[in-house]
C-alpha cells in the first residue's frame, strides 16, 4: 500500500469512529481530500485507493492537475476551497463541481451568470467568517442571511451549505457549533468544516464535509 493510501485509510477510519461516537452515520461525512501543492501523481494515488472527492484552493493549480484526472475518473468531484477572484470564475465554473467560497454579492452574481452561460451544474457553499477575523475571507455571520437570500432567490444558485475556517488559535468547537447552528437555521444540510488538526471535533459538531490535506498527502511548503 502506498503511503497516501495508508494515510487515507487512517483518516477514513478516524472519520467513521468520530461519526459513530457522535451518534452519526459515518456515511453522512464526506472526506474532501485537499491536494493543493501536491502533484497530480499524488492525486492519482488517492484515486487508485478509492478517494473521489478532492479540494483545491487555487483555480490555476486545479486547472493544471485535474482535467486529465476527471476524464479518467468521471465520478471525481472537485471542490474549490480557496478565495475566488471574479476574473477566475470562468475557469472555476468550467472545472469544479462545488465552489465552497462564495462570500460576497458580486462574486455570487458573477458565478451565477457564468453557470447560466456555461450550462454546467455547480453547487455552491457560502463561506462564513465565523471568527470575525479581519484578515480572513467569508461573509460575517450577520450578513449571511442576506447573502444566502440573494444567492437563492435572486441568482437561483444551488446553495448546498455553509463553509468556515475557524481561528487558528484556541478551541475551534464553539465556532464549529456556531456554523452548524447557522446552517440549521437556514435549512442547509451541508456543513464544510474541519481540517487535519480538528476534523474529529468538527464531526462532533455536525460537519458533513471535512477538508483534510496534510494528514493524507503530507506536509506542504506553504499553507
Ligand atoms: C489547505 C486547506 C485545508 C486543508 O488543510 P490541512 O491542515 O492540510 O488539512 C482545508 N481547508 C482549506 C480552506 C484549506 O485552504
Plain-language structure description:
By secondary structure, this protein is of the alpha/beta class. It has one domain (3-217): Alpha-Beta Barrel (TIM Barrel). The chain is 45% helix and 17% strand. The protein is built from 9 helices and 8 strands. It has helices spanning 3-21, 40-48, 59-72, 89-95, 105-118, 141-154, 173-185, 199-204, 214-217; strands spanning 30-34, 53-56, 77-80, 98-102, 123-128, 158-164, 190-192, 209-212. An 8-stranded parallel sheet has the order 7-6-5-4-3-2-1-8. Strand 5 (123-128), helix 6 and strand 6 form a beta-alpha-beta unit. Helix 4 (89-95) crosses helix 5. The longest helix has 19 residues, at 3-21. 43% of the residues are buried. Residues 34, 36, 57, 81-82, 165, 195-197, 211-215 line the site of pyridoxal-5'-phosphate.
Task: Give the tags.
alpha/beta; 9 helices; 8 strands; single chain; 223 residues; TIM Barrel; eight-stranded parallel β-sheet; globular; binds pyridoxal-5'-phosphate
**Bound compounds:** pyridoxal-5'-phosphate
CATH topology: TIM Barrel
Tally of DSSP helical segments = 9
Strand order of the largest sheet: 7-6-5-4-3-2-1-8
Question: Low-confidence runs (pLDDT<50, min 5 residues)?
Answer: none
Report the sheet-strand fraction. 15-25%
What class, by secondary structure content?
alpha/beta
- Tally the structural domains: 1
User: Looking at the structure, what is the overall shape?
Assistant: globular
As a percent range, the share of helical residues equals 40-55%
Distance between the termini: 27 Å
The Rg value, from CA coordinates, equals 17 Å
Secondary-structure element string? HEHEHEHEHEHEHEHEH
Name the CATH homologous superfamily: Alanine racemase
CATH class: Alpha Beta
What is the CATH architecture descriptor? Alpha-Beta Barrel
Count of distinct strands: 8
What is the typical, i.e. mean, pLDDT? Answer: 97
Amino acid at each position: 500500500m502506498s503511503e497516501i493510501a495508508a494515510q487515507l485509510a487512517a483518516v477514513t477510519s478516524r472519520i467513521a469512529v468520530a461519526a459513530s461516537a457522535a451518534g452519526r452515520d459515518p456515511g453522512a461525512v464526506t472526506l474532501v481530500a485537499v491536494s493543493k501543492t501536491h502533484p497530480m501523481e499524488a492525486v492519482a494515488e488517492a484515486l487508485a485507493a478509492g478517494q473521489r472527492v478532492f479540494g483545491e484552493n487555487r483555480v490555476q493549480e486545479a486547472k493544471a492537475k485535474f482535467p486529465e484526472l476527471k476524464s479518467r475518473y468521471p465520478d471525481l468531484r472537485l471542490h474549490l476551497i480557496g478565495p475566488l477572484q471574479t476574473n477566475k470564475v470562468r475557469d472555476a465554473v468550467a472545472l469544479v463541481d462545488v465552489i465552497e467560497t462564495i462570500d460576497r454579492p458580486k462574486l455570487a452574481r458573477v458565478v451565477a451568470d457564468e453557470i447560466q452561460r456555461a450550462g454546467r451544474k455547480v453547487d455552491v457553499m457560502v463561506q462564513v467568517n465565523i471568527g470575525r477575523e479581519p484578515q480572513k475571507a467569508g461573509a460575517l455571520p450577520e450578513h449571511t442571511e442576506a447573502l444566502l437570500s440573494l444567492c437563492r432567490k435572486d441568482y437561483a444558485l444551488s446553495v448546498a451549505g455553509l463553509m468556515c475556517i475557524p481561528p487558528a488559535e484556541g478551541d475551534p468547537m464553539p465556532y464549529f457549533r456556531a456554523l452548524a447552528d447557522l446552517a440549521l437555521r437556514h435549512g442547509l444540510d451541508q456543513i464544510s468544516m474541519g481540517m487535519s488538526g480538528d476534523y474529529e471535533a468538527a464531526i462532533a459538531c455536525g460537519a458533513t464535509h471535512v477538508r483534510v490535506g496534510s494528514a493524507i498527502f503530507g506536509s506542504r511548503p506553504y499553507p
